[in-house]
Amino acid sequence: MDSPMCLVENADGELHVVPGAIKYLMGLNQQVVVVAVVGLYRTGKSYLMNKLAGKRKGFALGATIQSKTKGIWMWCVPHPEKRDHTLVLLDTEGLGDVEKGDSQNDAWIFSLAILLSSTLVYNSRGTIDNQAVENLQYVSELTERIKVNSSSAASSSHDDEEGGDAQFVQFFPNFVWAIRDFTLLLEIDGRNVTEDEYLEHSLELRKGGGKKILMYNLPRECIRNYFPSRKCFVFPTPTTPANMPHLDSMDEADLCGSFRKVADTFCRFIFQESRTKTVKGGHKVTGRMLGHLVNAYVETIAKGSVPCLENAVLAMAQIENQAAVDEGLVVYQRGMEEVKALFPVAMGQISAHHLRSDHQAMQAFMKRSFKDENGDFLKALAVAIAKHYADLLIQNEDASEKRCAALLEKLSAPMAQKTKEGIYTTPGGYELYCSHHDNMVAQYRAEPDKGVRAEEILEQFLREKSLEKNSILQADKKLTENEKKIHEEQEKRALAEQAVKMEAEKQHQLEKLIQEKERSHQEGICQLEAKMVQEAKEKQQELERALDSKLHEQEKLMAKGFTEKEAAMKEEIQSLREEEAKREEKEEQSRNFRAIAQGVIESVSNGLGHYFNYKKAREQRKAIVFKEQVRYDLKSGAVGNIPDMERMALKQDKMATPKLKTGAVDNSKDTTLPKVNTGTTDKSHGSEV
């Protein structure tokens, strides 16, 4: 991004997302580190953002008493230290702008900055005195403007007070206070202190219970309780008052050396310490996901409701998981294009491509998905892949049938011509016919790349030719009746042997499908376990960060003798630990890998049901065609030429046409699964029956 763009527009006191900025974020697949700056208007916030972007110009600085930044502006730049990360800089509209006259609007902008960032920079001028802390009044209103859990949205304010602080510290950004134009000495009671010690001293609580003390402590307690870490930087004046209006056009070398030193230290800290943006549950956020969050939060505020972290994450998870399904399917389809171009191929070849593409698709899905706790989206992907694979199996079989049929037609053409010329109807013709017939079959078997139906198509061909062969046998006057019977038995054995080869071919295909399903099952369990372990680890890190913050705060309260506050802090720590215990128990109950994996297997079976239904319908269609051929031969008086086993089958069947059942697998039960954009039209092969 060459220059900043408006992300959230503030027009007439109403907030709206800017479509162009959202579109940019939606195309950003890298994880993001989000740094937002807030503070009173005309305090030099934009300069810090330009410095972080490594640019002299970008965010409007302005040199008048009017605020330049309206709404929230965004600048996305490559992160200077984190590989494959994007640094998202958010410059917010100045708080307390007299031209707005709307503190509610300021409060929402402040809340959005907290919700969207992983590091929040509060920019002020002068010193950290009581007025500077009171200017942070919005921090004490956060329990009214941000909800953590969806259940708390309907809870009472008392419930919020009970658990709000403990929950906020898990999900809020790190807090950095940047003090501009600082002219005092960093001393407390004659002792030199660091910038951080200066901040902590300014945030110390006063003992007592009067209203004045409560009001004094309130914003300080909120800062201490809500943000997991605090850092302070004090910036001296960068140049003379006369040059301040021209700050954006001045060379770095012309700025005060001590100012440049602090600015460089500030940038180095932000680059190294600002963590990747996460959402509730510890899941790392990409630019695309940040776009979803911006949409969700701003739309909620526009409706007059309170943004809820849990609801926003659940809504984003639905969108992202559906996109993960679609992306996984595209990866699978792309992986199968190579083998599709080679149809017909052997079962082993298409199976190898399927397993590899299925693995790649699952990897793509796992990388993008999160909070798919019941495995519904994983099942949806499994169904989509199985259906696409079933279509490819059918296409491969059809291609094999066409190639084999064309090959047999080509190889049998000379024999057909000789039959037409009556060459085989002379005495000794049967022996000549058998010689040519065996030679043709040998040529057929020697031909490579016939595909998965080579033996089946040959079996059909031989069975069809058996009528012709038997007719030539009966017409050969050179043979005795006894010899004819011997040849008939030999033909029956040959047909039976070919039928065995055909069944072996089908059995091999079936075994391959079973092996594929088992291998996919085991791999799916491994990937699912790894995914859930990673998500549990992220949640644990989120909790530990909150606990560390609370324990650190507890130590400070103990050292200062705030017994009552320390007791309240202990309760918060205990609450966090109990919450974690409940979460682990709930996750342990729901983390039934085998049950989810079994559901995936059933989904795969449903998807492959399309293929098995097609095969069943094809077998039934083949039986009908054969019986119709026999019926025709009966009517034409050729019943004597029909082999005994076929005549028996005809007699038993009574020429009844079987009713085809295409619903062996009930796919109507899949209505609870997410929809999948397959990108192809599902052709019903059953309609050919």
UniProtKB/TrEMBL annotation:
Protein's UniProt keywords contain Coiled coil: yes
GO molecular function terms attached to this record: GTP binding; GTPase activity
Coiled coil: 470-596
Region annotation Disordered: where it falls in the sequence: 657-689
Protein's UniProt keywords contain GTP-binding: yes
Biased composition range(s): Polar residues: 670-681
Keywords of this entry: Coiled coil, GTP-binding, Hydrolase, Immunity, Innate immunity, Nucleotide-binding
GO biological process, one term: innate immune response
PANTHER family: GUANYLATE BINDING PROTEIN
UniProt similarity note: Belongs to the TRAFAC class dynamin-like GTPase superfamily. GB1/RHD3 GTPase family.
Official protein name in the record: GB1/RHD3-type G domain-containing protein
Protein species of origin: Hucho hucho (huchen)
